[in-house]
Amino acid sequence: MKHSKILMMAGACALLVACGAEPQDPQYGTNHNLPKPSRGLLPTMTIPEPTGWGDLLPSVPEGYSISAIATDLRIPRQTLIMPNGDILVAEGRGGNAPKLKPKDVIAAYIKGKGTTSVESGNRITLLRDADGDGVYEFRSVFANDLNAPYGLALIDNRIYVANQDALVFFEYEEGQTEAQGAPEKLTDLPSALNHHWTKAMTASADGRFLYVGIGSNSNITERGMTAEVDRAVVWEVDVATGARRTYAEGLRNPTALTIQPGTDQLWAVVNERDEIGPDLVPDYLTAVQDGGFYGWPYAYWGPNIDDRVRPQDPEKVAATIAPDYALGSHVAALGVDFSNSAMGERFSEGAFVGMHGSWNRAEPVGYKVVFIPFKDGAPAGEPVDFVAGFLDMENKRTRGRPVGVTVDPKGALIVADDLSNAIWRVVPDTPVPTSPVLQGGEAENASTR
Amino acid sequence: MAVVIQYRYSEAIHPLHAVLVSGALALFIGALLSDIAYAKTYEIQWGNFASWLIVGGLVFAGIALVFALLDLLRAHRRVPGIGIYFLLLLATWVAAFINALYHARDAWAMMPGGLILSVVTTLLACLTTWVGFRTPQFVGREA
Questions:
Q1: A16-36 pLDDT tens trace
Q2: Is B108 on the interface with A (CB under 8 A)?
Q3: Which tens digit of pLDDT belongs to each residue from A120-133?
Q4: Phi/psi of residue A359, each to 5°?
Q5: Cα(A267)–Cα(A254) distance, rounded to whole angstroms?
Q6: What is this model's ipTM?
Q7: How many domains does chain B have?
Q8: What does the alpha-carbon distance between residue A308 and residue A222 come to, in Å, rounded to a whole number?
Q9: Which residue of B has its CA nearest to A42?
Q10: Reading across the β-sheet that carries A138-143, which strands appear in turn?
């Protein structure tokens, strides 16, 4: 099957209301177009068929080069750069939500065609480039027997790992390549069903708190309201005690969190709801306001009511904050990190966003890493493709799917790819001299992811 | 006193065929009642019940449709009324299929279309069963 545009049920093509028209207005940025909700009798699904890289590499801008620093991993998702330059990779696949409706059985089968068949790693792998030549020649399993680890953060001498059901930590000494024994638990995380299982995490700038992103338990409450307690929120967890409070609500699936250098502000990329059209609702990048409500499930992008939710809540609709920057609908942003001057002048001020790519849209979107330029601390301008070539548009095949992105303070972008099970590293061809003062400031509480 | 046993099978459609059609009717009624419960309570589980009941009805009605089609295709078995019965059964199945697609929508998106289609499907299934049970069964020709 060369071209796999899959319809949910054969023989029903005539019933399909086509809704794959190309968007007229920009689907990204601060001033973007929100069409009216629409849905045909069948949801549109296009799953690009996985294929190998062969001799090809992802494409990067001129003046940059890319290489795979690790392959044959077991579903790499997020990475963390240690102060000595080692890279930790969280590997695994989670989720245990039962199939409730006939639709779930069919949709799970179709979606499975676009993902890797490799078994969940449930581990953290360490990569090391001891001589600094860009080849990560040493590799070890840092920790094993984890439960779908995703978010990673380092505070002082502890590595925190957000499993799909608990926040755990390992004691760490610089240079260590293997954890000493099993991790200790800081706190449990909501894990019933885990429709959206990834637990994104980052540490606050002062190292006192961990922020944990907890996705909703459904697309749009189709598993019932009771399944949504403590879901679609960002938690602030006190590192000293494990106590937590809800920092922000209504973020459907906050898949990656990061702290903006300079402002110490928490930012997130969030995946929005499906099945109301190919150009709704845009996934977004936003500064997460303390106590803010971002709409899910009652509304989206300010007071746009989602009519699929019962009972409705006009107060919540009115309270909905419009996010800062639209990344495009269904791009599935799963990674975010702020850049620095070591990445080169063109890409020094802004954030990189990893886009896993769409499955519920006729024309696939995402499947790349983009750079969102910032000005005066806020997103400004169009996204620029930074790593592309994952998708073979002509044949509707995909070679890889980007997830987590992490900026190495030394001037490299680390991209986890959970389809080709590789870690990619993008570097400027001519290293940019960096001011040691700036670097020191950034590394003070170490890197977080 | 001699007992006379008359082997009287249904004079209408084949008994197995009849079981399938009436089974589908029961499942579609169940789906309709579940839809009403969901619409009144917003309790999503009723919507899930309706989805599966419709799929069950589709399976039963689908097999019955094969029976009806065979009766229709074999000219020597064709009896008065089988044509209209076949069309009604087909209409029931198509309505139920579209209803199944409506019920595949998330949460309240299945309403009100799902409820309306459940009413239509149930009415069609009642009519089909009525007509089907009145359709004589071909048992053989007199010599």
A1: 333 344 444 568 888 777 899
A2: yes
A3: 999 999 999 999 99
A4: -135, -10
A5: 10
A6: 0.83
A7: 1
A8: 9
A9: B101
A10: A76-81, A87-91, A123-128, A138-143
